[in-house]
Amino acid sequence: MLKNKGSAKISKMMLSVIILNYKNVNLTSKCVSYVLNATKDADIKTQVIIVDNSAQETADKLKTLIPDAHIIENSENNGFSKANNQGILASEGEFILLLNNDAFINSKCLVTGIDYIKNNNNKCGVWAPKLVGEDGSFQVSCAKLPSIKGLVQEYILLNDNNSYPDLNKWKEPHNVGNVIGAFMLMEKKKIEEVGLLDEDYFFTVEDVDYCKRIHEAGYSVIYDPRCGIVHIGSASQEDKWINDPYMHKFRILYFRKNHGVFMAFLSKIIIYMGLNIRKCFFKYSKIRKKE
C-alpha cells in the first residue's frame, strides 16, 4: 500500500491529473486549460495537482494562473519519479493520470481510456493514447521492453529493434512492453498494489521500469491508437539524444535492477561503444551535408 501521512478517506473524485512544472509556467497553464476543457466536456470530476520542481518563484505565478489547482512546491528539482510520487500521494481520484505539461489532452481520450480500463476485466494496468506533434506528425510513444539484443540493434547497428513494425498503421489497442510517461492513465488501486515510481530514476527510463512492474503484477500496458493527443516534447534531435547523460545512465541502472550486475556491465559496454559509433556517424553525416 502507498504510504501517506494524511488521513485515509474514501475517494469521491473520479480523476486526479498530475502535472510537473519545471520553469515553464505558461506551458503548464496551457496544459491545464486543455485538461479543464476536456474534463468539462466529458463531465468528469477532476482534481488537478501541479508539482513545481522549479525551485524558484514560480509557485505564486501558478497559483495566480491556475487558482483551482492543488500546487505542491519543491525547494529543489526532485526529478520525475519523486515529484510524480508526491502528486500520487496527494491524489483523491479513482483514476490517476500522469501527464507531461507539453501534452494537450481531449475529452475523447479521457473517456476512451477510462472506459477501456473499466471494461477489461481488471486486466489493464496502464493505458495510453497515440501521440502526435503539433503538425500532426506521428510520434513513436511505445516500445518493447529493453533487452541486450535491442541495445545491440539500437546502439551498434543503428537500428531501433525495440520499436514495433508498422506501429503507425495500428488501428486497435495493443498490449505493449512500455509506453512513455507523457500520458499514463491508471487506476489508483493498481498503483497501490504495484507501488510508487522508483525514485532511483531521476529522469527518463522510470516509465519503462514502471511498465515492467505492471507486467510483472499480471496487468497489461495498453497503447490505444483509436484516439490521440498533441505532444510537443518529442521534437528532440538525434544529436541531443546522443548527449543526454540521463538516458544512458538510467538505462544501465534499469538492467542492473532488473537483470543483475553482469547484464548491467554488458549494457554499459554496448551503450558507450555505440555512442562513440553514433557520434562518429553523425559527425561524418554533417560533414558530408556541408560538402
Automatic annotation (TrEMBL):
Key word Membrane present: yes
- Matching SUPFAM superfamilies, A to Z? Nucleotide-diphospho-sugar transferases
User: What keywords tag this UniProt record?
Assistant: Membrane, Transferase, Transmembrane, Transmembrane helix
Q: Name one GO molecular function term.
A: transferase activity
- Signal peptide range: none
Transmembrane feature ranges: 261-281
Q: Which InterPro entries has this protein been placed in?
A: Glyco_trans_2-like, Nucleotide-diphossugar_trans
Residue stretches making up the Glycosyltransferase 2-like domain: 16-194
Q: Per its UniProt entry, which superkingdom is the organism in?
A: Archaea
List, alphabetically, the PANTHER family matched.
RHAMNOSYLTRANSFERASE WBBL (PTHR43179)
Write down what this protein is called.
Answer: Glycosyl transferase family 2
Native source species? Methanobacterium subterraneum
State the taxonomy lineage. Archaea, Methanobacteriati, Methanobacteriota, Methanomada group, Methanobacteria
